[in-house]
Amino acid sequence: MDRLPHEKGFHVSWDQLHRDARALAWRLQDQGAGEGGWRAVVAITRGGMAPAMIVSRELDIRTVDTISVKSYNHQTQAEPQIIKSPDMDVVGDGTGVLIVDDLVDTGKTLEVVRAAMPKAHVATVYAKPQGKPQVDTFVTEVSQDTWIFFPWDMALQYVKPYHGADD
Ligand SMILES: O=P(O)(O)OC[C@H]1O[C@H](OP(=O)(O)OP(=O)(O)O)[C@H](O)[C@@H]1O
Ligand code: HPA
Ligand SMILES: [Mg+2]
C-alpha cells in the first residue's frame, strides 16, 4: 500500500476534516432546506458517517440513518450495490433529507443513492470533477488524479529529518 496508482495524495487530518465538515454544514444552513427544514440526515457508510455526525450536530438534526453501498475493494471499483437501505418510512422520496458522504469520485455511488431518494439533497465534503454533477453541495474540489487519504486510514509515524533523507 505504499505505492499507489495515483499521482497525488491529499492527506486529511481529523482536525481538517472537522473544519471542512463544519464548513459544509454552514453552507447547507445558508442554503436552507425549504419549508419543512432538514428532516433527517442519511450517512453513506462508512466514509460518510464522521462528516454526517458533524453536520447533524451543527444543524441540530436528530434523525440520522445510514445507507450502505459497496463498490470499492481498496482502490479498485466494482458496480455499486445497496447492501443496507435507510428506513424508507422516514426518508420517503428524500424530501427534506440530507445525504452526506465524505467524497464523490466517479459519482457511481451517488448515482445509486440518488435513484433510491430522488428528492434528497446530496452533500459531500470533497469532490472530484467527474462526480461533481451528482453533488448539490460540497466544500473542496481536488483533481481527478488525486487520492484522498482520510484520517481513519492513516496513522502518525516517524519521518526522517529532511537533512538525512538520502542517507
Ligand atoms: O464516487 P465514487 O467513485 O462512487 O466513490 C466515492 C465513494 O467511495 C468511497 O467509499 P467506499 O465505497 O470505498 O466505502 P467506504 O466509505 O466504506 O470506505 C467514498 O467514501 C465514497 O462513498
Ligand atoms: O480519493 C479517494 N480516497 C478515499 N476513498 C476513495 N474512494 C473513491 N475515491 C477515493
Ligand atoms: Mg464511502
From TrEMBL:
Membrane topology recorded in Swiss-Prot or TrEMBL: Peripheral membrane protein
Needed cofactors: Mg(2+)
Subunit structure comment from the entry: Homotetramer.
Name of the gene: gpt
One Pfam family from the record: Pribosyltran
Protein name per its UniProtKB record: Xanthine-guanine phosphoribosyltransferase
Pathway listed: Purine metabolism; GMP biosynthesis via salvage pathway; GMP from guanine: step 1/1; Purine metabolism; XMP biosynthesis via salvage pathway; XMP from xanthine: step 1/1
One Gene Ontology term from the biological process aspect of the record: XMP salvage
Compartment annotation: Cell membrane
GO molecular function annotations of the record: guanine phosphoribosyltransferase activity; hypoxanthine phosphoribosyltransferase activity; magnesium ion binding; xanthine phosphoribosyltransferase activity
Keyword Nuclease: no
Family of the protein in this entry: Belongs to the purine/pyrimidine phosphoribosyltransferase family. XGPT subfamily.
Any one annotated GO CC term: plasma membrane
